[in-house]
Structures are given as C-alpha cells and as structure tokens.
Amino acid sequence: MFSRTGELMEKWKEDDFHVLSKKLSEQEFFDYFSVRSAEIGFEYSSFGMALPLPLNNPKFIVMNNYPAKWWQIYQSKNYLSVDPTVRHGLTSVAPILWDEKTFVAAPEMWEDAREHGLRFGWAQPARDSRGTIGMISLSRSVDEVGAGELDRHLARMQHLVQILLLGMTDLILPKECPESLARLTLREREVMRWTADGKTSYEIGRILIISVSTVNFHINNAVEKLNAINKIQAVVKAVLLGLL
To answer: Residue 67: CB partners within 8 Å, gap ≥ 6?
Structure first.
C-alpha cells in the first residue's frame, strides 16, 4: 500500500503523462509547467530547447515567465551566449544550482539577474531521441535552494523536463526541421549506416550482396527524403535526428 507521499508522486506522474495526450499549444504546455513549478515553490520558470540542426548557428527556442525587464536585458546583452547553465545543459543531464560559483565566468549576468529578482534557482537538462536538448530553469527571489529541497524535488524536475521536451519536440521539430519527419526504409537505413562507417557504394554492395546501382538508389532516396545536398549531409542529418 502506497504511503501518502507515494500516492502524491503517482498522481503528478499521472497528470504529467495525461497532459501529453491533450492537443495543447506550445504556450499551453509551458503554462502547465509554470503552474507545476509554482507548486514546488518557484516564482519564475523557463524552458529552453536546442534543435539538432543546423550544426552551425544552432537554433534555440526559449519560453519563460521572467520579469519583462530582465528578459529584455537577457536578450539585448546576448546572455544566451555566455549563460553557464545553458553551456552546462548542452553537455550534461545533471542538475545544476544557481550560485556565485556557477556564474563566476559571467559576473555581469549574475548581478543583473539578482537585481531583477532571480537570486536562487536550479536547472535540469534532458535529451530526446530525436536530437533535441531541453532544459528547465526554476528561480525565485528569496530562499536558497538547499540539498534537502533538491532531493525532494529532483524526481519531479526530471519528470517535468522529459514531459516538456517530449511535448515541445512533437510541436516544434516538424516545423523547424521537416527532415525529422522522414521515414527511411529498412534497406535505406542499412545503406546509410554503412555509409556512416565510411564504406563506399561498392563495399556496401559486397556486404549486402546487392548491386552498386541498387546501393546508390537507396542512398539517393535517403538524400531526397532528408532534403540533403549529398550523402554526407544526409548521414549527418539522419544520425542527429535519431533516424539510424
């Protein structure tokens, strides 16, 4: 029999999964997240998502309920390029707390954030099988985030960011990266995997016991489906989008 704590945990998990079944807009998904964040004691919430393509100048999607003045400063000073929590989220899935040590390389940003009420917080990154990277950041103006609070809410944070990333990826990726909708056949995936391993069409033909022209046929089909200019770009796109 579940304890009261266990029952509450099962309830929020059920609620989170249920929201995925609804046809919500991007804003409605974020609003759901903001309400849940407030329930565990945070005034401000933010969700950021890095798209898998393009590799150069990657696109970031950001939604938040920050004070308007702070968000204006964040954008005008291009703090995204120096934000240590963003850099952390691109390379790790571990939670990170906001403190002076975290922002040692971005002191101006740290001071600006604190002046506008974002004094304490934490961030939790996540990754999706389709190549997107997401991160939720929760912050508030009073009360430091202690180890006990982190322990209590870590599972909730990790669950929230996975649900948000899944829902937002479903909504945003097809619009921003139509190649993500490509459906490669089993043989196309085979050929592209061998291509990714550096095999020539002749070598792939020998491995799969098919003609070179058949190999090239499947490669060309994949190139077209992925809106690529050549097989190298097609392989890169397929790998980043989790299609292989």
So the answer is: 44, 116, 117
Contacts of 93 (CB under 8 A, 6+ apart): 125, 126, 127
3-state class of 137 per DSSP? strand
Q: Are 61 and 51 in contact (CB under 8 A)?
A: yes
- Collect contacts of 167-171 with beta carbons under 8 A, ≥24 apart: 167/19, 167/20, 167/24, 167/29, 168/26, 168/29, 168/47, 168/49, 168/61, 168/132, 168/134, 169/49, 169/128, 169/130, 169/132, 169/134, 171/25, 171/26, 171/29
Dig out the tokens for 153 from the structure: 């809410």
Question: Are the C-beta atoms of residues 103 and 109 closer than 8 Å to each other?
Answer: yes
Instruction: Report the Cα–Cα distance between both ends of the chain, in Å, rounded.
Output: 43
Give pLDDT tens digits for 24-65: 899 998 998 899 899 889 999 999 999 999 989 889 999 999
Mean pLDDT by 10 residues, the chain (244 residues): 51 75 87 90 94 91 96 97 95 92 95 95 93 94 88 85 90 94 97 97 97 98 97 96 94
Q: How far is CA 17 from CA 29, 138, 162, 208, in A?
A: 12, 21, 10, 42
Q: Which amino acid is at 22?
A: K
